[in-house]
Design brief:
The protein has about 230 residues and is an alpha/beta fold. It has two domains: about 130 residues, Rossmann fold; about 70 residues, Alpha-Beta Plaits, CATH 3.30.70.260. About 25% of the residues lie in helices and about 25% in strands. The protein is built from six helices and 15 strands. The strands form four sheets. A six-stranded mixed β-sheet has the order 2-1-3-6-14-15, sandwiched between helices. It has a four-stranded antiparallel β-sheet with strand order 8-11-7-12, covered by helices on one side. A three-stranded antiparallel β-sheet has the order 4-5-13, with no helix packed on it. The chain binds ribose-5-phosphate. The site of ribose-5-phosphate (R5P) has 18 residues, from α4. Keywords: Isomerase.
Amino acid sequence: MNAKQLAAEAAVEYVQEGMKVGLGTGSTAYWAIRKLGERVAEGLNITAVATSRASEQQAKELGIPLVSFGEIDRLDVTIDGADELDGDLQLIKGGGGALLREKIVAKGSDRMIVIADETKVVNTLGKFPLPVEIVPFAWEWTVADLAKLGCVPELRRDGANLYKSDNGNYIADCRFEIITSAPELALALHSIPGVVEHGLFLGIADMAIVGKNDGSLEVISGKTKP
Ligand SMILES: O=C[C@H](O)[C@H](O)[C@H](O)COP(=O)(O)O
């Protein structure tokens, strides 16, 4: 079993009968959705919402019952991957372009469990270019504002075209190298009008389950949410 699958399957053990579950996005979340599908096939009753079209499609194929956001107020748990995580459970997410839906779903969950292989754990965030979802309108100005924050922003491409998120927005991947204060950066990003959301997840994750290549697991517990 690979390290991502190991972490994902350990996280799925936290899902209990009757729970409302947020399904993350990406190659690690894929394994969690797959395991959940197996448990549903064995008789587990849950309902779920997905954080991307891709995860929605996977859940449908596996027979995981999906509900609309109008039918539920909150979720019990969300299981999702990360591009980077530090010891305080600060995350960079959005490598797969799903950061906005992921943040909405994670913030609406009583518990967010992050799943990752050991390569994602860092001392300081920033090596992975921070994904920032921006509106297409005047994107050139938004990208210029992002650069003023000390990064090198690059608009994500999808072959010959600009990449569009599931929400029809662009993603600027912002290379900072080192993010010295993630909370300050988060505030600065939100002060730019063209920014819809950024991939810094701060004070959102409750625990991380990290799979290692030697087959072991590490659990990182977070601070209690306010
Ligand atoms: O937008 C994508 C998500 O934030 C993913 O959860 C993140 O990029 C990690 O993906 P993966 O598990 O494929 O490394």
